[in-house]
From TrEMBL:
<feature type="compositionally biased region" description="Basic and acidic residues">
    <location>
        <begin position="134"/>
        <end position="144"/>
    </location>
</feature>
<dbReference type="Pfam" id="PF00855">
    <property type="entry name" value="PWWP"/>
</dbReference>
<protein>
    <submittedName>
        <fullName>LANO_0H00672g1_1</fullName>
    </submittedName>
</protein>
<dbReference type="InterPro" id="IPR000313">
    <property type="entry name" value="PWWP_dom"/>
</dbReference>
<dbReference type="InterPro" id="IPR035503">
    <property type="entry name" value="IOC4-like_PWWP"/>
</dbReference>
<feature type="domain" description="PWWP">
    <location>
        <begin position="7"/>
        <end position="68"/>
    </location>
</feature>
<feature type="compositionally biased region" description="Low complexity">
    <location>
        <begin position="157"/>
        <end position="183"/>
    </location>
</feature>
<feature type="region of interest" description="Disordered">
    <location>
        <begin position="124"/>
        <end position="189"/>
    </location>
</feature>
Length: 297
């Protein structure tokens, strides 16, 4: 472990029972306000690869992620074909990390926060790595830390990312699926964030039950997974859409269902996954278009 971290450093962050996940030490001035409000003393913010969530942790608990470690993991994953596909993608994104400036710019685009970029980045200047990760936002920002709020994750942390309002251990036991009707702008925002949080928790639980394991799922995991997929189906007819563009973009739940639907060892789930993916086909197509457009720019 290394406590001398700076912004732009690549690290492995371990949350609860989840596997250590590649992340980058994130400059606080570019955090979303909902994430920034959850900051804790002596903790730095990290942004996970292939997950679009954030987490607050002490530097001493983070492990530096070197190019050698990334290469070793990906070589091992290619040889065994037993690693979680989303974790492999995260390592691949970490290997492709070129600069903090480009990473930040891409995140701002994905989160539709280019106005924040314009307000916090000096025009024409490149955002350099190596800054103090404890430095907060400018004094004009009215956000305040929530002193007693525990960092959350679904791997994490802050909604809608990290999402992400129970502890990690309680999230692994249950997934709520009854968002309240929203009234007023503030309640609409909270409801939207909750939908994203639940989408990510569903992805995490299904992934743990069916994909991220060395042995076949047991009877209880199979029963729970059928129940979770049933809950997804039940909530697809809600208005507004429960699993909207943002929910799938941030949770990548559709990607996990594609993995399950393509695994011959999980054939009993193929029907449920296929029906859900068919219902989401328009949203998935839009996500592809958005990704291509983002890559072009």
């Amino acid at each position: 472990m290394d406590s001398n971290l700076v912004t732009g450093d690549l690290v492995l962050c371990k949350v609860g029972s989840f596997a250590p996940w590649p992340a980058v030490v994130f400059p606080q001035q570019f955090l979303r306000k909902d994430v920034y409000r959850r900051r804790k003393a002596e903790c730095v913010a990290v942004c996970f690869f292939n997950d679009e969530t954030y987490y607050w942790d002490r530097p001493s608990k983070l492990r530096r992620l070197s190019k050698e470690l990334i290469d070793e993991f990906l070589e091992r994953a290619a040889a065994s074909n037993a690693e979680d596909p989303t974790l492999v993608e995260a390592y691949e994104e970490a290997r492709g990390f070129a600069s903090l400036h480009e990473f930040l710019l891409q995140r701002m685009r994905e989160e539709n926060r280019m106005q924040d970029w314009d307000e916090n980045a000096d025009k024409g200047a490149k955002i350099e790595a190596g800054q103090d990760p404890f430095e907060g936002k400018k004094s004009g920002d009215k956000s305040r830390p929530a002193a007693v709020t525990k960092p959350k994750r679904e791997r994490a942390a802050v909604a809608p990312s990290s999402s992400r309002s129970a502890s990690s251990s309680s999230r692994s036991r249950s997934v709520p699926m009854s968002p309240s009707a929203a009234s007023g702008r503030k309640h609409v925002r909270l409801d939207h964030a909750k939908r994203i949080e639940i989408s990510m928790l569903l992805r995490r639980k299904l992934q743990t039950n069916l994909v991220q394991r060395e042995t076949p799922p047991g009877i209880e995991e199979v029963k729970e997974s059928h129940k979770l997929l049933g809950k997804i189906s039940e909530n697809m007819a809600s208005n507004p859409d429960f699993f909207d563009l943002d929910a799938l973009r941030q949770s990548k739940l559709h990607k996990l269902l594609k993995v399950i639907a393509g695994d011959d060892n999980l054939k009993e789930f193929h029907g449920q996954c296929g029906e859900i993916l068919e219902a989401w086909k328009d949203v998935i197509a839009q996500l592809r278009k958005d990704k291509l457009k983002s890559q072009e720019t």
